[in-house]
Amino acid sequence: MWPSFIPIEPSFAAMLIALGIAAGIINTLAGGGSNLTLPALMVMGLPADVANATNRVGVLLQSLAAVRGFSKRAVMPLDDAPAIVTPTLIGSLLGTVAAVGAPQELLKPALLLAMVAMSLLILLKPDTIAPPPGTPPTKVADSRSAWWVLFLAGIYGGFVQAGVGFILIAALAGSLRYDLLRSNALKMLCTSALTVVALAIFIWQGLIEWVPGLVLALGTVVGARLGVRIAMRTSQTALKWFLFVMTVVASVAALLN
């Protein structure tokens, strides 16, 4: 199928760039930025499945920008990165294939369930998400549960994307015991990998609207670069509570949309 290049009004372009910047910051520091961008794409008249696919253009480019930013600042733990990325890639393939043929009514319950679970985890067991300073990380090979959580995060990310950062943090900080700064760095690496898989399948299915996708991506890349700078200057406690606030906001957004 030929690529779609529908024109968009300047007002919609400005809205997508502004929301993209906000989403890029939010996704780099926590997750849930797609709760801003997905509704915006649907307001433009895109069907839910096309909006879900088109949103991945911005997600991929913002993730790559964040990975580059964290790497330049030497906070990207690369020694176990291949083992961390592998299960997310496998899961993403399965999740994206499911998303292509699944009823769109399943997107909202999946998002809501993930957000509520994450909110309760942060509130009731905060040390799980924010390990005490000096806690040594665990290798994926030494934590079977981490492999499965990363795999499930990949399925979820391939299926709906919105909120996948929260699930990745649950695996990286909760199971592998990385601090939140390094969890965010690895989260963006995993998001890049799983989004490549998802985007390739959506392109093959002809579900991408490239003009709004690339305009949105312009904003998300700027937001991701700002998000990396903010993350480097923010305490673990502040990151933890920002993460909690964003999961609550994501839960409310899932209920209202």
From TrEMBL:
Organism lineage: Bacteria, Pseudomonadati, Pseudomonadota, Gammaproteobacteria, Cellvibrionales
Organism of derivation: Spongiibacter thalassae
Compartment(s) of residence: Cell membrane
Keyword annotations of the record: Cell membrane, Membrane, Transmembrane, Transmembrane helix, Transport
Keyword match DNA damage: no
Family according to the record: Belongs to the 4-toluene sulfonate uptake permease (TSUP) (TC 2.A.102) family.
Chief location bin: membrane
TM spans (from-to): 12-32, 81-102, 109-126, 146-173, 185-204, 210-226, 238-256
Membrane topology type: Multi-pass membrane protein
Identification of the protein by name: Probable membrane transporter protein
Any Pfam family the entry gives: TauE
